[in-house]
């Protein structure tokens, strides 16, 4: 079981206004960084390029300190991705049943060797996030492969995460006119419905192209939903298990060592193909 702690005990005694900590997770190019920037009210991080390391930003919303952690994309397993493509070849599947939303799912890149797991994001907002925002673009398909990736990622945090999770839909500006997010959820298929239900039917729709104008209430509305969730969770927040962090760090080190071994191997091969190194000036 994951450790959880109460937000009320230490924070309410401090002089600082109670902080809200948001951890942003999601698949490749789902709009995580853009969402982080929208919440922060500034272009704090580079959107549109792959995020390889978690970033932390802070802002004030209605006098409350809000910490936002943007993270690299979670991994979509390669083998299952290929399975999915094979399935797609047979029949028209759910992917095309996206409430008419333009399908522009990028080919999922393999996770970068140096990309960090969700646990790293979680420890960047100590003592742990009040809300885990699962970012899903309405302009991309959401199939069983994506569902499993989400499940694995949250599971890797150590269990007990769903009660802190909420789906944040991005690119709602790309939904056909008159199609509301509820209709999109209903029409997109079981995988997405599963995700929303798993998050206790908590979701929020975001259009990251909307700049912070007075009539733009999407961030305050998101924060209201976060407050409701915190109330439902009696002020508790999610605290990542240190053992999991340790395991993740070990896995990262092993990957890094493997990469260095491969580079060394490639270097040696290059030297052999290029012939023995010249013997300088002895003749
Ligand atoms: N139209 C539209 N584009 C978006 C929205 N959110 C993100 N994008 C675009 O989607 C692309 C990927 O966004 P980014 O935030 O970098 O995704 P990340 O890889 O998940 O961090 C970028 O080109 C963004 O400009 C949105 O709400 N509407
Ligand atoms: Mg990003």
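^ structure tokens above, recovered residues below v
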């Amino acid at each position: 079981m994951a450790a959880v702690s109460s937000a009320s005990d230490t924070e309410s005694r401090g002089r600082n206004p109670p902080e809200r900590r948001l951890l942003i997770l999601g698949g490749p190019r789902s709009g995580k960084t853009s969402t982080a920037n929208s919440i922060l009210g500034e272009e704090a991080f580079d959107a549109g390029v792959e995020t390889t390391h978690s970033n932390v930003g802070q802002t004030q919303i209605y006098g409350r300190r809000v910490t936002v952690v943007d993270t690299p994309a979670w991994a979509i397993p390669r083998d299952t991705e290929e399975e999915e493509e094979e399935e797609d070849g047979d029949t028209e599947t759910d992917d095309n049943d996206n409430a008419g939303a333009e399908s522009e799912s990028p080919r999922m890149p393999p996770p970068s060797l140096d990309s960090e797991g969700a646990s790293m994001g979680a420890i960047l907002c100590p003592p742990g996030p009040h809300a885990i925002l699962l970012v899903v673009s309405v302009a991309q398909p959401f199939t069983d492969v994506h569902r499993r990736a989400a499940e694995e990622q949250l599971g890797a945090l150590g269990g007990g995460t769903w009660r802190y999770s909420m789906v944040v839909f991005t690119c709602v500006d790309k939904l056909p006119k008159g199609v509301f997010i509820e209709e999109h959820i209903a029409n997109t298929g079981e995988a997405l419905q599963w995700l929303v239900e798993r998050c206790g039917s908590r979701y929020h729709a975001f259009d990251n192209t909307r700049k912070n104008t007075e009539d733009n209430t999407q961030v305050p509305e998101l924060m209201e939903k976060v407050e409701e969730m915190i109330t439902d969770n009696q002020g508790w927040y999610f605290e990542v298990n240190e053992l999991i962090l340790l395991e993740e760090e070990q896995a990262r080190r092993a990957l890094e060592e493997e990469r260095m071994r491969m580079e060394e191997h490639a270097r040696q091969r290059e030297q052999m193909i290029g012939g023995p190194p010249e013997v300088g000036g002895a003749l």
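Strands lie at 3-6, 20-26, 55-61, 64-70, 131-137, 165-170, 203-205, 236-239.
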